[in-house]
Amino acid sequence: MGVVERHTTRGCPNLEPVEASGSAFPAGLNSLLTYGSTVLLTVCILTSATDFLVHRSDPKVSVKPAKIEAVSRGPEGDWAWMSVDLNADLRSVFSWNTKQLFVSVMVSFATPKNHVNEAVIWTEIITDKSKAHIKHSSLAPQWAYTLSAQDHALRVTPFNITVSWDVMPIVGALYMQHRSFSGFQFPAEYFKPPRPGRLKQQKPPGKIPGAVM
């Protein structure tokens, strides 16, 4: 007689066919986008680091007062008006990753009442390397405000002139460089321009307000 073998399913899982889920496509798309974003971010970081580590700039900058046209005593403090001679060769700052430069000239000084007085008197945006050699004689402030002090202590006060440039890259973080020049001071006596109200003023490139702090 033949032997009949019996097979039991006790303790075995119930195997059922698995239907394909509709969530497979979104999951795959999400993985693809995540991978692509990671690769793009890595490329951007490496690109920015390569430009920062490899590129070497050697800007040549000089600035000095051209003429102090007025130093006057007002009811609430002293004020002054000046023009500057600026020569800034920033062409070496440009690299293949440079989008533009934001260049500014700031005058700063200290008085007994305010230890920090700063005024941005001129700005310019440079988008082309060929235009990054800036030369101006008797460059006047762009805005109709003066260098002012909230006390009567501006005469014979030393001041600095700082030329700054913000480097705005195509890829990567913005950074700033500057050169400061000292050894200047306001005159010892008050005087006003020969023709009051006729102080020279440059036309600003845009609505960028100046600030006196």
Automatic annotation (TrEMBL):
The keyword Transmembrane helix applies. Keywords: Endoplasmic reticulum, Membrane, Signal-anchor, Transmembrane, Transmembrane helix. GO terms for cellular component: signal peptidase complex. It is found in: Endoplasmic reticulum membrane. Pfam families: SPC22. GO terms for biological process: protein targeting to ER; signal peptide processing. The keyword Transmembrane applies. Its main location: endoplasmic reticulum. It comes from the Eukaryota. It is a single-pass type II membrane protein. Residues 194-213 are annotated as: Disordered. InterPro entries: SPC3. Belongs to the SPCS3 family. This is Signal peptidase complex subunit 3. The lineage of its organism: Eukaryota, Viridiplantae, Chlorophyta, core chlorophytes, Trebouxiophyceae.
